[in-house]
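SUBJECT: A protein chain and its fold
Encoding: whole-number codes for local backbone shapes
Chain under study, with its fold:
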Amino acid sequence: MNAEKMKKTFRIVGFKGEGAFTEFNTEVPKRARQFLERLHEIEAVPGPEIALYEPKRDSDHLEGVYYVGIMVDESLTNVPAGMKYIEMDEEYVTAKGSVHHIGELHSYLLK
């Protein structure tokens, strides 16, 4: 796996999810499939699929928030019902890989 630190403006439209970190490896792919079933509702050119995660702070931090969706090139003014639009301009660490190996990717990013 390859990780990269970068500063970039991310424009993302997708679903918000939350739950136990131990369940992310099954819940995130399931939520991503639900999102992709509604991809046609987005009035933008779809970019790469993306998942964003709240980092686990310590062993007592058992639940977290995540987002699954796609990146878009332009700001959205019309967001489909039940979806969120996020625009962020900060430093990030990224890793690329299959959503089916999300647990491994998450562990790699935490290192």
